[in-house]
Amino acid sequence: GAGDGAGHGDGHGDGAGDGAGDGAGDDPCTFVAGTGTHMFDRLSLEEMDEASAALLADSQTNGAEHNLQIPSIELGPDCFNYVYLMDLFTPSKAEALAVLDHGADEPGRYARVTVNRGCQNDIIEYKVGPLGDAQNPATVEALTQAGTVPFEARPRDGMELRALKRYVVEPLMEELKPLTRDSFGMVFTEDDGSPGQLDFHGTAPPGLRSTERLERMFLTVKVDGTGRVKDLHALPIQWRVDARGSDPTTWTVQDIYYNRQGPFQSAQELLDLYFAQPSTLEKVSVAADWAQIVQDYIVPHRPNAPQRAFADRAGADLVEPSGKRFTIDGHVIEWMGWSFHVSSLQQRGPSIKDVKFMGERIAYEVSANEVSLVYSANDPVQGNVMYFDATFGVGETAEAMVGLDCPDTAVYVDDTWWAGAPRLTKNAFCVFEAYTGAVLWRRQDGYHSGIREHVLVVRASLPVGNYDYFWEFRFTLDGEMHVEAGASGNMQTTFHTGSDAEAPYDLFGNRVFTHTVAALHDHHFSFKVDLDIGGSAQNWVDREFYRVKPLSEVWNGNVPSYLQAEYNVQRVAERETAATEADALLQINLAEPSHYHISNHRVQNAWGHNKAYQIVHGKTSANTFPDGASGHPIMVGGSYRKYHIATTVRKDEEVAATTNYALNELLDTPVTLDNFIDGENIEGQDLVSWVSFAFLHQPRAEDMPVQSKVKTGFYVRPYNYFDENPVFDLPGQVIDRRGADDVVISMPPKAGNCPAGNGVAADASHAAKRGLSPRRGPATDQSAEVVTGDHRGAWAP
Length: 797
Prior knowledge:
Shape: globular
Strand content: 35-45%
Number of strands: 37
Mean pLDDT: 88
Low-confidence stretches: 1-25, 758-797
Distance between the termini: 44 Å
Oligomer: single chain
């Protein structure tokens, strides 16, 4: 509601308050989220159903030769086409600003739909809509041409993995059953047809060009009831599958390896050598009870370990003794002068848009864009493994683990996505205010003064493969916005013989369990940062370089002789304005410090400075892979890794720094960040900064069986944007102690008496009020699957 700053809103406003009211009427201890809708919202369940119906009714997508199937389960001998992805067709920036700034009508709602066409052996993207418009039925418009993107370039999904299992892996493992039983005491399928103790998984890429589809597979120990914990226990059998085309009965196995020996072109060739008398193969074996050891070990709890002192007591937690200081209306959030819309794109990840502070837009968009990884291993299929996680969907949100992912004071926001059919994810994002336990500023000199540091946090946690990613946007009282990305989960591994004669480490990783070597790798994140400084989309890139210069070069006037003799040099800040995109590339070099500003040369603060925001990196590693014709293929499709910041002229068609198919077309991808850097002038233009940051992960024993969170990121902060520190409108502690008596000038508000955990939905009615907007429909909609556990469900292996 439109709280007035004192908690007196009527609870039925439009969310246009200043963020200091709690939007809950006269009772500050009650929080009810609004149910407004927004043009940036994800597609609703009904909109996905409407788009699906339009596709099924359209002759160009579902004629007799297309056989479009919704929902779809598994590839088979009979070809069919299926919807891989359905997401919001985002309105152009010009359309959005016309609505946000000038009160224009919202543009129609459209879906961007990706159809994998097994019958035509290609992939086409469509624009479907308008949706929800009774006067104008939805139509279908092709966004890409037939045959442009081969079917082989599609992201791997459960459709393919289930087909691989049925038509390729199960027959192969049946042939190799005597070997797996002899080496490991385990089989893929028992003699009675029931599942055995073995599983499999595939690495990536399946080729370096879009027409290739050579899937790389390896054998693992199955971990009951889990999806990817099996990655911790790889076994030394690997193979490749030629999976070109949509008919899995034509897919063939090649290049089988056993204990790094091979390749063998058939299972029979390997069996003949394995059971030859004498065998020339170097064999491996595991303990007879190894499968049970694995099952027991993965439980992340050690009940028999000595308990630490006071571990039976609850730890510190957050409280809100005066109620909440933020409002939520649909997906629009306001807090202490900040306002923004939070959502996500299924493949790219979480996004915030229309970010304003103290009434002025700071950013049009700050969005996750890509995460790429490169693995090392002494292994025939896991060596030089590469992942582009946006290919698999880093925005496939999962239900937050309430009571774990976020504090009890958090309020949750739901989300939707496509997984062969519409999906509703309850509690996808959590929102909460936190006291950091520190001061935002303090000074003890005449005045005892300061203010506590509070932040607003918007967080999403979601599994992608063997990792759980954490995405966090954190807003401060003084106008900073921090972006963090982190990871926890299970490592990708290769096989160790278990022999003490084999070294505990090699060039590619560390031994972390009996038969487990965890692989060296990195996580390289990319964010799209569209700052609009001074409320304007016409900005500049200003750089400050901190250099050491002789005093004789930099002083105005005569240098005192004692300074010239004893000091001679001084650090200076030299300012440069980037003229072209090539001038605005940042590769962090600690020996050459600099700051990077997005500024507005048409708007100045009271002291004559161009208003600006800095983009500042936290801890980050640098890319070390070579570039160019003889470089690593990751540097072609993932060229964003070369730059910590690259700023380009914003274009609606330059949505992301990689394509949705980048992982499967590394060397012939049509879109890379390098394509965007084409020499354009960037002075006074609408700009977007592509910000990348990374961490290098050399696994250790302490990362087993689940690694503790590793995180990194960046933040943006005002730089001469304001005339002074913008927090002095907030009631902090200011005590004048210069005289004989203390004079209290200001004190923070006194705490109220709201109970701990207020604002958390405690019953179904409150959960419904907190949940989806009317556009999305009730959570009981039978057309959607509510995601509450394994969020990938039928869409994943």
